Amino acid sequence: MDISWIQIFILTLSECVAPAGKTVCQEQQFELRFLSQEDCSYALEQLIALKDEAEYVIVNRQKSGCAPSAAESKTYASLDAINDANKNTVGWRVPGSEDARRIEVNQSYSERLSELMPCKDTGDVVPCKVGDIIVEEQAKGDSVDVWKRD
Description:
Radius of gyration: 25 Å
Order of helices and strands: EEHEEHHHEE
Oligomer: single chain
Distance between the termini: 47 Å
Strand content: 25-35%
Helix content: 25-40%
Number of domains: 2
Largest sheet: 4 strands, antiparallel
Number of strands: 6
Number of helices: 4
């Protein structure tokens, strides 16, 4: 592992936020880092559109934008090297591994499905299967909130 400098783009959003019912706002800024100019510009557009819809937020467009910069970063000799260095890190995702994870889940599902008897043979005692669908016991526990987009 070596240390190198990589190009990044820093999104700065400058806004003035007023609490509900107040006429004076408080100026604040925050920054986000991106690896590409396109991602930074897209995020800036989305944030400005979102903030413009808010009743008590004013975006200072002169102080907001995407600026190129650089950041010191660890570099690795190969994909295997970065995977080895981070394999015990909580939440680590192997780059390009979504297909591998999907295959692993599908294999686990197929194994469990093959172990279950059809529901018609068990008298609908769960767990059982109906075709390729696993029927589980009804969940018991705390209720959950369901979020949906209007």
